[in-house]
């Protein structure tokens, strides 16, 4: 039988991970737990960078609950039970999607609402408790392929050597440029995403906003070319909102590409024509944090460099739609698959095959799930016309999301997305193929076959 995810590799490798976000901390945790030496380099000075809310679908919540336990997770998480849908401009309620327990039971996980910072802290604690070293305030100037070992050059002049360098440095990845041997070719999509976190105390002063805060819901407001959503986070001590706005109405400069660190006065954003409820929410957010959606039309073909020693995970491998529901889950799934494969290491000959298996397992899924996020968000920003009328009519009939593997009122393939188990996927590959890359395993298999023949 293949080893479990917490197996200890008998071949100890030195990993340097560039980037300490969700992907970086997750893969650091699973690799350190598997017995490898892991060092994470993060350019920010500490935890706590500006960030908003995350929707945690069942495929991700299953992993978090396994890692930290349900009790620890529920200290900050809010369970999402419904998604009311409104017209962003009139405030009219169009429909509601119920995320009831009977619907999610088949997925094996819950649909949670969390603050990005709360999830990041959980993952940071896991990584350090597993034995990873995490250094903040580190500027990486270059990642250099080596023969055989790659090196990482720091702004201080220090040079680090590793067996494998992992690029977990996000959608504007510097490590990806090394892997592809070319500069980033992303182009603006025309859409800007804003995030903010509102104080619960201020929301409680208004009955309508208080009702939003106290509900276990993720309301979405659908408009012409734009949308707005929000939900409680941090055990309802805060409320996270996100705005999906066209570039021309968002004050976004032509050369802007900042990922969530660009603070923008709300007054700079064209919010005219919004409903009273939307305006109330925005009145509590004097500042928004901006991310521009930059598109890679052809995706990222290669996640591993020519030397086979530098590899990408998370948004460095598959840049995501900012504020999309599934991006964080894909980062954690990457980590689980990578960590499981590298928990089996007994000799170096297994490494190249395991690296390519990681990309083979993850690339098709991340591409398909990214398309789900893009299609669903586009559905929320439709212009007036027959298609939007049809959408509203279908959403108005929606009472419950039935997880049966079919299309769910325009929310394509959610059942399949939610049911996915990253560890099972990696285990299946190892049981079928991976063990044959270890000479000891091949020898044992042949000996077993000979014994069976002899006793037949």
Automatic annotation (TrEMBL):
Q: Which UniProt keywords apply?
A: FAD, Flavoprotein, Monooxygenase, Oxidoreductase
Membrane as a keyword? no
Which SUPFAM superfamilies does the record match to this protein? Answer: FAD/NAD(P)-binding domain (SSF51905)
Specify the FAD-binding domain's residue ranges: 14-370
Tell me the InterPro entries matching this sequence: FAD-bd, FAD-dep_Monooxygenase_BioMet, FAD/NAD-bd_sf
Note the superkingdom of the native organism.
Eukaryota
According to the UniProt entry, its GO molecular function terms are: FAD binding; monooxygenase activity
Matching PANTHER family, A to Z?
Answer: MONOOXYGENASE, PUTATIVE (AFU_ORTHOLOGUE AFUA_2G01950)-RELATED
Q: Which family does it belong to?
A: Belongs to the paxM FAD-dependent monooxygenase family.
**What name goes with this protein?**
FAD-binding domain-containing protein
């Amino acid at each position: 039988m293949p080893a479990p995810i917490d197996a200890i590799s008998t071949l100890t490798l030195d990993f340097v991970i560039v980037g300490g976000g969700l992907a970086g901390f997750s893969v650091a945790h699973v690799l350190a737990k598997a017995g490898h030496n892991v060092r994470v380099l993060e350019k920010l000075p500490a935890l706590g960078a500006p960030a908003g809310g995350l929707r945690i679908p069942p495929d991700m919540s299953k992993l978090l609950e396994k890692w930290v336990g349900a009790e620890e997770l529920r200290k900050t998480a809010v369970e999402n039970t419904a998604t009311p849908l409104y017209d962003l401009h009139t405030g009219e309620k169009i429909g509601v999607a119920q995320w009831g327990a009977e619907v999610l039971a088949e997925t094996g996980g819950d649909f949670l609402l969390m603050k990005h910072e709360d999830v990041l802290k959980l993952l940071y604690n896991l990584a350090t408790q597993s034995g990873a070293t995490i250094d903040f305030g580190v500027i990486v100037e270059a990642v250099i392929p080596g023969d055989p070992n790659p090196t990482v050059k720091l702004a201080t002049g220090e040079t680090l050597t590793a067996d494998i360098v992992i690029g977990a440095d996000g959608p504007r990845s510097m490590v990806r440029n090394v892997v592809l041997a070319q500069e980033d070719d992303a182009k603006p999509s025309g859409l800007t995403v804003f995030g903010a976190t509102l104080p619960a105390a201020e929301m409680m002063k208004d009955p309508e906003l208080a009702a939003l805060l106290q509900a276990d819901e993720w309301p979405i407001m659908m408009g012409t070319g734009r949308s707005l959503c929000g939900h409680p986070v941090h055990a309802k001590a805060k409320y996270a909102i996100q705005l999906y706005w066209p570039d021309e109405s968002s004050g976004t400069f032509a050369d802007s590409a900042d990922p969530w660190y660009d603070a923008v006065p709300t007054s700079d954003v064209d919010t005219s024509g919004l409903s009273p409820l939307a305006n109330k929410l925005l009145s509590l957010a004097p500042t928004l944090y901006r991310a521009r959606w930059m598109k890679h039309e052809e995706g990222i073909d290669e996640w591993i460099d020519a030397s086979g020693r530098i590899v990408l995970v998370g948004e460095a491998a598959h840049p995501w739609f900012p504020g999309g529901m599934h991006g964080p889950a894909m980062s954690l799934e990457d980590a689980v698959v990578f960590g499981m494969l590298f928990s089996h290491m007994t000799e170096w000959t297994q490494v190249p095959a395991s690296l390519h298996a990681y990309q083979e397992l993850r690339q098709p899924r991340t591409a398909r799930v990214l398309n789900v996020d893009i299609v669903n968000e586009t559905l929320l920003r439709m212009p007036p016309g027959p298609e939007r009328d049809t959408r509203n009519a279908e959403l108005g009939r929606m009472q419950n999301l039935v997880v049966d593997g079919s299309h769910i009122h325009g929310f394509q393939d959610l059942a399949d997305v939610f049911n996915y188990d990253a560890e099972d996927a990696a285990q299946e590959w190892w049981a079928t193929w991976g063990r044959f890359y270890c000479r000891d395993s091949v020898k044992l298999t042949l000996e077993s076959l000979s014994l069976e023949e002899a006793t037949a």
